[in-house]
Amino acid sequence: MSKAANPNKPKKQETEADVAAKKQQADRERIRRALITLGDENKKVVSQVKAVVAAVEDDVELHGELLCNTVLACVKCLPTKLSMYAAWLAKMAEQHPKFAADVVAHAVDELRAAVLDCKMGSTQLLLRFFVFLANTSVLGVAAVLNLLHEVLSLSEGLKPSKGGDFGVFMALAQLPFLSQEAYQQGKAKVHSLMAAAQRYLASRGAHWKPLLQLWKGDRPDRLEELFAAVQQQQKDNWSLKVVLHVPGFRPSADGMAEMPAIALGISREEFRKSRKLQVPLMSFHLLTDPSEEVPMPTKDRWVLEDYILLTVEMFAKDVDECSKQILRIPVLHPHFEAITVETLFSEMFRLPATAFLPLFYYRLLEACAAKQASMKQLIDQAFQALIHKVQDMDEECMYALAEAFACHVANNNFKADWKVFTENEVNPKVKRFARRALERLQRLSDYPNMLVRLPQAMRIYASAEPLPASGLPVVSKPQFGRLINLVRLKDANADLVVQYCQWLMKSDTKEPEAPASSATEAPEEPKEEAEPAAKRQKLAEASKKEVLERFGDPPAQPLTLQEVAELVMSVMLQQGHKTPTHMAKILDGHEQVLRQLKPEESDAGYCRTLAKCVFDFWQAHGQRLETTIDSLVQRKVITPLAAAEVALAPGQADAMHVWNVVDNVARKSLDRSQVARADLATAKKLGKEDALAKCLEPWVCLLFLGLACRMLAVQGRAELDSAVQESASLFTSIFTSLVQKYEDASKDATLQGIFLQRIIAIGRKHLSDIKPLVDAAESRIPRVKNHPDVAAVFKMLSTL
């Protein structure tokens, strides 16, 4: 019985161990809170640092490990507080040098792991922490700059496509955070770093940059902009307004004697085996103009953008908290909000792929606007500026903008500035953008409600009402009405449907067989007794009569497999059209019908027939089309290749759902290859472990285990080969279809540009998996070499 039910129940006596455990837990929470909230109060930073030192310095012996882990976790998550944690550690080192040395040693280990995993955010923040430790004399300036030299040397001999940007970017990105005194002490090493970076940039040969630009034009990426920012900082005597240096601390050339060495200790061979960083382009200027009276200098702007990007990376799991952290960035400038909006929009359209879904960045913008009302107008202005540049925008970025704009319209009660779409002469690409935005909007809102709330001038861009197609030729066939009574949502009888399909494909000269469930089937007679001819005739007539009653009149000519497949798929779509749940239940009950009808040898035509039925039936409802095709591919009823071939067949509209289907089947095909590769690696690993254990286990068990591992490896290799071959065939077909569409649109430059952009988008997104095909495009993809523009696109893709 609980205390509330029986208030007179005596309290449980706490033991000394319970009291000690509670006190220890309270102490741990106090330590965490003290470190995490360092710098949050509206007081002088120095006094806050001293207060936290006084609060936790007596806990070093008992909770030293907790202090070390907590401060490093804060370092890897809070980019604007690194100088405070460095100052705190400098104060702690005065009384507890061993503890400070342990923190530095753990930070070096964490840095080494982050570099090997190419974790951009963690690597930047840990290196930056070392720079601030040099600013506060915990570490020597020379030692930290040597560490940056070691990081930069990882890029030597590597091209950008092989990870060459990583070391240069990581080393340069920490220089703006050196204090003026630290710069003066290590000026020679800083200049040496900058010279090495300049040599790398001169030999970089970034011919792939046009593939990663939001719109046409020569725009520097973050590495080039970073180098320009550091050069500007050097000209300005290493001054920077947006970086906080805690007063009262001075750097030293050697640092504290008790501190350990901070060498990275990673060979180039180890680094080359790790994943590589691809430096994105710098944010674009939509709302700010460098020619204004009070522009933010390039060096300060780069650091502010870096604060924003790192904050997004660290707090992406919580949009609300992420928006709070962004708005708390301690930078006072009239352009702070505008630069924040520009940076988040830039990340929304980052190529070749965004770190998070584009919708995440829009939600983050809305969360910032909810807390800072003045940002709402800036977001509206950014949308308008982007829409005016749609004609020069990358195709994939245009789709992301359409999705974000649709969400923006839906969240603002359909209020927006529609003038750009309703002017007398509207650019064709702007019209296309409007159609894409409304296609996305109708997925967020009820269609009739959307039409009512949209301005009259915008309704011309809306697609047809999302309803299933009516009047398809297959509906007029007499077998359609009979089959629709057999394909049921409840009490599904797949065997009966299969029998009917087989009966439709039989020749009319043969006598139809009665269903297996027929109650009038004659019992077996002993073989020695010959059945009278009259009785056999009577049974045959009864069987034929039952078949005719159940299946109706036979067709004049036997139906082909393609006709039957079209009939069955059309009936299933009709029975499951109400909701996706209905369709899922229909497939659950009748999936085996489609499997049993599927030919064993060549199923390409069969799968294309099923996919074409779905495209014809849901031609006006893109969302249902995508979900239905996805479900059929997931169930392995149709192949990704068949879905892509039908989606890109001549005559298919340039619609959002067409490209979504192509992207989805391409991703699923590559996912299969990755799963097969992982399974094969697991089988090989098990085989190696088996070999190592032979001396410890009975030989019989090991024999069978070894055989099983070898069988798994053989099966895994076969599955991997099949998956790789499927992916190669799929992408070859996709590119071939796009080249054919480009060729057919010879009289329409706009359409040709769209198909070139689609080739770029697909190749750019999946390049790591299809690099051999892209490199050999002229020999493996028909008619590529006949079109210089297409060949140039594939050549540029191969440089990524």
UniProtKB/TrEMBL annotation:
Pfam annotation, one family: MIF4G_like
MF terms per GO, please? Answer: mRNA binding; RNA cap binding
Positions of transmembrane segments: 125-148
Kindly list the GO CC terms recorded for this protein: nuclear cap binding complex; nucleus
Task: List the InterPro entries.
Answer: ARM-type_fold (IPR016024), CBP80 (IPR027159), MIF4G-like_typ-1 (IPR015172), MIF4G-like_typ-2 (IPR015174), MIF4G-like_typ-3 (IPR003890)
What sequence ranges are listed for the domain MIF4G? 67-204
Q: Which UniProt keywords apply?
A: Membrane, mRNA processing, mRNA splicing, Nucleus, Transmembrane, Transmembrane helix
Localization = Nucleus
Query: What segment(s) does the record annotate as region Disordered?
Result: 1-26, 509-539
Q: Give every MIF4G-like type domain span.
A: 334-454, 563-746
> What biological process terms from GO does the record include?
mRNA export from nucleus; mRNA processing; nuclear-transcribed mRNA catabolic process, nonsense-mediated decay; RNA splicing
Q: Residue spans with biased composition (Basic and acidic residues)?
A: 11-26, 529-539
| The UniProt record lists the keyword Transmembrane | yes
Presence of keyword Nucleus: yes
What's this protein's family per the entry? Answer: Belongs to the NCBP1 family.
Name used for this protein in its record: Uncharacterized protein
Q: Which organism is it from?
A: Effrenium voratum
Taxonomy of origin reads:
Eukaryota, Sar, Alveolata, Dinophyceae, Suessiales
